[in-house]
Amino acid sequence: MSDLEHVLPAIVFLPFVVAIFTLLVGRLIGRQAGWLMVLSSVTAFAGSLWLFIHQQVHDRVVPVFTFAWLPDLNIHLNLRADPFGLFFAMLIAGIGVLVGIYSLGYIPRLATGRIGRYYAALIGFMGSMLGIALADDLFLLFVFWEVTSITSFLLIGFWYEQDKARKGALTALQITALGGLAMMAGFVLVGEATGTYQISMLASQEVLRQQLADSPLFMPALLLVFVGAFTKSAQVPFHFWLPNAMVAPTPVSTYLHAATMVKAGVFLIGRMLPIFNQSACWSPILITVGLLTFFVGAYQAFRENDLKGMLARTTISTLGLVMMIYGLNAASQDALQIFNHAAYKGALFLVVGIVEHATHTRDIRNLGGLRKKMPTVFVLCLLSGLSMAGLPPFFGFIAKEALYAELLHNVFLHNRPFLQWFVIGTCVLANAFIFAVSFRLIFGVFLGPLSDKAQDVHPPCAFLWIPPAILAVVTVAVGISSAWPSTQNLMNMLSSEVHAEVHVSLFPSVDHLGPLILSCCTIGIGILIFKARGVVGQAQRQFDLLPAMQTVWDGFLNGVTWFAECFVHHWQNGSMRWYFSAILLFFVGLSILAISYFRLSFDLVPISLSQMPWSGLSLCVLLVITVVTVVVAQTRLGAAIALTATGFLVALIFVVYRSPDILLTQILIESVSTIFILLILFYMPSFKKDRLRPAQKMLNLGISCAVGVTMFIFVLFATSLPFRETENLAGEYLSRAFHGAGGQNAVNVIIVDFRAVDTMGEITVLVVVGLCIFGLLRTRRRMQL
Amino acid sequence: MNLLVLPILVPLFTALLVALLNGRGMLQKVVSLGSCLWLTGFVFWLLLHVDKSGIESMCFGGWEAPFGIVFVADRLACIMLCLSMLVGTVVLVYTFWTVTDIQQKYFFYPLFQIVLLGVNWSFLSGDLFNLFVAYEVMLVGSYGMMMVGANRGQVLQTMKYIAINTIGSTLFVVGCGLLYATVGTLNFADLAQKTATLSGSRAGLVTAISMVLLVVFAMKTATFPLFFWLPDSYPVVPAGVSGYFAGLLTKVGVYSLLRVFIMVFRQDGHVFSINVLLVLSGFTMLLGVLGAMCQWDIRRILSWHIISQVGYMVMGVGLAANPMIAEVAIAGTIFYIVHHIIVKSSLFLIGGIAERVSGTQEIRKMGGLLDMAPGVALLFIVASLSLAGMPPFSGFLCKLVLIRAGLTGGNYLIVFVALVTGFLTLYSMTKIWSYAFWRNQCHKVVGFNYRGMMAPTAILVVMTILMGLYAQPFLSLGQRAARSVLDPQGYIAAVLGSGDEEPVADTPLEVSEPSRDPMRLVCGQPKEHRR
Amino acid sequence: MNNSPILRTVVRVAVPITIIVSLRIFFQGHSQPGGGFIAGVLVAAAGAMYLLGFGIERAARWAWWKISVIGLLVSVFTGTVPLLLGRSFMDHAVWQRHLPVMGDIHLSSAILFDVGVYLIVFGTLMTIFVELGQEGR
Amino acid sequence: MELLIAIVIGVLFGGGTYLILRPSLIRVVMGLALYSNAANLVMIACGGYSPDRTAPFVNSDTNSISTLMDPLPPDFILTAIVISFAVNALFLTTCYFVYLDHGTDDPGQLPVNKLKVENDFVE
């Protein structure tokens, strides 16, 4: 028992190692990389199976693997192999084996690198699905969840030359990522309320569940997690990505969109059931969404002409069914339903893949009569199709009986008779549609006259037909074996409910005739629909049940993009005037906001006019005059001279402040600047009349005044006595200037000694500017030559 | 510790040396690379040292703070230094393959070192005015870098960039002056000490003055509405160097926000400015990503993404207004900075390779890169998913930390914006993928050997994977750094000295008791403990 | 204008004077207004006069930026020496000597730093003058 | 004097702002020059004014330092002056080239976003 838990990380992470290996060697081995997929999935399957058997034989202890991954975030690498998780893992690995084999025959001879990438993504996908199945930490689950989104994005876009494939991949990623984000927020909220992310702990500890239920975050968390699950499992209204994702190669569709990935959402709900099901809105939401999806999927499937589209929509339908089951708190039959669906739908997808591979079309209207060309495939399709239709003795029949039995005896529905009959009626109708779909599939593709497209078709190679054959055999075998109670026990064991008691039997007893009657109704209506398919099809074209969600979604994205374009066009418009105005206005606004927020008024500032030296006053007046001159000057030279005068006057103000060093520097710098400006002015055009409209000028003036006033306020406050800090560093500097640094001019000593690093930066700037100008001019001159 | 000057001294000497070696390309490369590698080694050692034995400070000229200028290396500064040098070295190696003769002749390598110098300086500086000088050095280096090659677009955008930054510099000087007048010092540690004692209308005025600095730093950070310069100018920076710019320059602004608005300003009502930042961050995130959505030029898309990503970091700073989540939020911000520098640099580098391979910058004209350059595609998808916050890469974890902090603090709106932004980021990145890497090859193959450029890029991409899968050390480092930013006592003691020679208060924070661990308070303890 | 003999004569006289003044200002920097920066600007002004008088072609062959780079090297090196001696960067030494003729003299190693500044300002301004001056033709 | 200097600073900033908002690059340069002057005045004003102080020259027999001006703001100003001078020279040069390239010095007539970003390598 000691090392048992180490099998868990091996199961989950080995595929990732293999995926990376595949990526590396894919270029060399190309198609043979499929064997790596088979190998890794067989290993994973064997591991899971061994764990399961071990668990059942030995006192039912659940192996748990724990590793402190991110203790700071309270996220741990917890893996836990409970029967439901193992069931899901075995399903994933098992179908993985089949898909791997199938791909060997299916994937055409492309560039080897591309095939390597394909298998790497597929194996990586399998690893992450195994991770979802076995994770016991909400965020670990989330990590794997998103990895499935990414890998599925890459797989759906396998035919990336086609516009449709890219679009389908993008839509799938967008929708599932959106759900993922919502789910992440939901998980965070769960953690907020309870203090743990460990799923098994949340599910088993009454205290935590109570804490969660009492928390105000309970409802939002529930809804957010639902959004995540619904998007992944393609529930209405997020269902539209799944049919679009059918552009993927068929093995991918089989694996991701029938057997495993779309079931992750359902699986998640199964995991969350014990945590959330105290909520009052658990059942209503799940039943509504599930039932709606169940019916809409089936209804739309019948309308579809694309084979994979048909199957995709029936998949949506079944996922809705499982959601509904969870909503009814009837988790005991989830394993049964999931397994059933994976078996027949996987087989059907693979069969459709064979048909497409052979005939290069998936449109049911162009097909027919293939039974003569490929009899084996026909048999496989018949077996799985009848299972989907829910005919005895196939697995599908068993599952449907179980569903009807639940609907008839469910506690939640029992108290609401009207709802109960509504649900039962809808389910019967939906199942009837599915029945009709499966008949349409069998008849449309394999029976009837041989179509043109199918003239030169030859039977598929062994790689292609063996995997669906295995699934078909499973369908039949489980169906027949359910005559014995061991199947029932197995299904109960695998279910997410610990003490599941679903009653499964091929032969209904006299006490349980209700389901049988409903089944008969289903089959009857189904035959009617199939017979009247012309009329029904006509009617369906008239009544579209839901607006095309794809259009809504595209419209949303286009709207956002349109808004973005408007924004960028107007905001980032390249106009310096706007940039400056926005920056300055923001500065002014923020400053005024802060000043008014802290109630700084002029009352706090003592304003005395007495201390004003005459020299200062006259300088200031002159300065104002020169500034105005610079602003209004109509000639370049005038402006330049006024600017220089401004500089000199500023230098004189420094004199008033008794700072002779900056006086000299300022005067020299001002002179040199003037020389530069004149030099450049010499090359530049003369001032023209402003093209600005009067309103724009007024605006400029307004902004200028605002900036000026803001600065005025700041300076006034900061320099006024109540706000000034007199205990500053000046004294320290002065006292050390001579004795410490041996200089008399304190300013200069500061420059070259105390704060020499500032000076170092300053001269670095000067040097770099020299280099920049030199480089710029020389480069230009060289470019002209 | 006197050696603290090395992160600026080495680039400066190298810049001068390399400038004098003008015309001898090989030697320039060797010298630049040698100094970068050496300094990278040094700063990593410094980080380990500081993390172990507390904050180091260095007084210039032997004049002690607050009187002399002081360089301080706390954990945050060291982290930033390491990133700067790491990315700098990587980018330098990358540019060996991209730099043209004329660029090389006209001071490409010296200017590059000057940018490094300015950035490193900004991280170490412990004095506000010195920070201004560091900014100017960095800026003037970046002006030169942006103009190297001197084609029309470059000069035009540089002109705007200079103009905008000159306004910023003016405001910076004004801010320094006003602060000196009201508080009487510009040394960070001294300021932190003195502002903490302020109250009443003086504290209000200081907060109002801090708005001037907020505008300056927000401009550097490229937050809303001051990000005008960024999407225009980054596309003209020479390939490769744009990676360094994208990674580091805006982060200098974020760093300054952290340093100044979290650590230094502690007066009554300083929460006002933090709240302003929170509001700005929401707009920044959303508008940045919207800008990215409607672009078709790969560098422009990436540039707009910088803005939206900066929004996340500023959001982390803004969340610090709530003391309960402050530490987590700051730790998240620091982790985010680390992540973003690495990822965004690598994306720009990858974008540069993609441009070379396909001969165009526009993603509509690219196509089929997945077949032509599968290695580049792999790097790109990893980096872009990391940017978009997809697990298991580093982007996911840092978004998670911030979102968790936001939810704990009850800032639901900003979390919503962050999530929407994350989604739109993914949308925009997959757009690049779909257009440039998928599709048929729709252009002639430019026979270009990009393998040399791949190796440095790959280093960064591997880092993001590593930081996602093995995040614990990074997270706890970020947390320790956050702690010393939030509680400046250690910093003050290290700079101003606590009188005698006893070891500074900032003792290494090893594994503390789980229940005391604030990171865990967010989620890991039953509610009673939290209240 | 370049060949005007009067201008040349004036320049011949003015340039040395300016240089001397600049040196004077340079050395008084530590005790009175002045210092490397101002002196550097002055000497650059002398250079500009020279350019005016004798034309730009000869000057353009020089790499003036190298002077500024060397100046920066000098300045930084001044700061580095104490570092190599185990003291802090920019730790300036001060010698106070009483010389027979010149009286009390404070000689600080900061002077060397200022020499760097002087060279930088001169070099950079000359670079700009020369390069921009060439632009017109 | 505080009031006076504050008014002057306000006028300088206002004038600078008005100039940089006008459609002429040379005026933008001049506006930014006014800005840097204004910033320097802010700095010196923040050093505080009192009529009876003298310039900060010290020697061995200076005994009262309280009568001297604060030497720190002038130091800051010196640094700021030089930096803004250098950057303005660079800015002026780029303005000149922008004018050469595009034949206009009106920022409003310069190519905006539609400008194709020229790359630093040639095919």
Characterise this structure.
The complex is a heterotetramer of chains A (785), B (531), C (137) and D (123). Chain A is an all-alpha fold. Among the domains of chain A are: 280-542, no CATH class; 570-747, Four Helix Bundle (Hemerythrin (Met), subunit A), CATH 1.20.120; 755-785. Chain A is built from 32 helices and two strands. In chain A, α13 runs parallel beside α19 (417-446), α15 runs antiparallel to α16 (375-389) and α16 packs parallel to α20. The N and C termini of chain A lie far apart (82 Å). The radius of gyration of chain B is 22 Å and the shape is globular. Chain B starts with 5 loop residues before the first helix and ends with a helix. Helix content of chain C is 68%, strand content 9%. Chain C contains five helices and two strands. With 123 residues, chain D is mostly helical. Chain D has a single domain (2-50, 70-108), classed as Helix Hairpins (Orthogonal Bundle). Chain D has helices at residues 2-20, 25-46, 72-102. Chain D starts with a helix and ends in a 21-residue tail after the last helix. Classes of the chains: A mainly alpha (785), B mainly alpha (531), C mainly alpha (137), D mainly alpha (123). The interface between A and B is large, with 114 and 121 residues.
Layout of strands and helices, then pairs:
The complex is a heterotetramer of chains A (785), B (531), C (137) and D (123).
Chain A: H1 7-29, H2 33-57, E1 64-65, E2 79-80, H3 83-106, H4 112-134, H5 138-156, H6 163-194, H7 199-204, H8 206-214, H9 218-232, H10 241-244, H11 250-259, H12 261-276, H13 282-303, H14 307-327, H15 334-359, H16 375-389, H17 395-409, H18 411-414, H19 417-446, H20 462-481, H21 485-494, H22 513-531, H23 533-542, H24 549-571, H25 576-597, H26 614-632, H27 636-656, H28 660-683, H29 694-719, H30 730-739, H31 746-754, H32 756-784
Antiparallel strand pairs in A: 1-2
Chain B: H1 6-20, H2 25-53, E1 56-59, E2 70-73, H3 75-98, H4 101-105, H5 108-124, H6 128-147, H7 152-183, H8 188-196, H9 200-221, H10 229-233, H11 241-264, H12 271-293, H13 298-319, H14 326-358, H15 369-372, H16 374-387, H17 394-409, H18 412-437, H19 451-469, H20 472-486, H21 489-496, H22 518-522, H23 527-530
Helix pairs in contact in B: 1-2, 1-5, 2-3, 3-5, 3-11, 3-14, 3-19, 5-6, 5-11, 6-7, 7-9, 8-21, 9-11, 11-13, 11-14, 12-13, 12-18, 13-14, 13-17, 13-18, 14-16, 14-17, 14-19, 14-20, 16-18, 16-19, 17-18, 17-19
Chain D: H1 2-20, H2 25-46, H3 72-102
Helix pairs in contact in D: 1-2, 2-3
